[in-house]
């Protein structure tokens, strides 16, 4: 028997709380979650806020952009410039690091994040 996974959607913030083409951070339980408004693309993303490289809560302050020919959305840590895919969480450099990503939906000016 297969078990259906249900996403619990939490209200993270309002659209106006996150700058265009930038990020913000919320706390959910013991986790800090970075939320990104990639307005140039009309897309929203969420990841853990902790950069695994130097264990700093900083990704929400990182620069977002696009990588490679596929224009994969990415975030770069503001301290040491390690870049991570906003789609998969994989490090886009040579390092073997991964960050957690969360589904995001926007409804009626509110930003919701899917959590376990």
Q: What do these coordinates show?
A:
The strands form 4 sheets. The chain has a 4-stranded antiparallel β-sheet with strand order 2-3-4-10, with no helix packed on it. Strands 1-12-11 form a 3-stranded antiparallel β-sheet, with no helix packed on it. The chain starts with 7 loop residues before the first strand and ends with a strand. Strand 7 (63-67) and strand 8 (72-76) form a beta hairpin. It is mainly β and 116 residues long. It has strands at residues 8-14, 22-28, 31-38, 43-48, 50-51, 56-57, 63-67, 72-76, 83-85, 101-102, 104-107, 110-115. The model has no long low-confidence stretch (mean pLDDT 93). It has no helices and 12 strands.
Record the SSE blueprint:
Layout: E1 8-14, E2 22-28, E3 31-38, E4 43-48, E5 50-51, E6 56-57, E7 63-67, E8 72-76, E9 83-85, E10 101-102, E11 104-107, E12 110-115
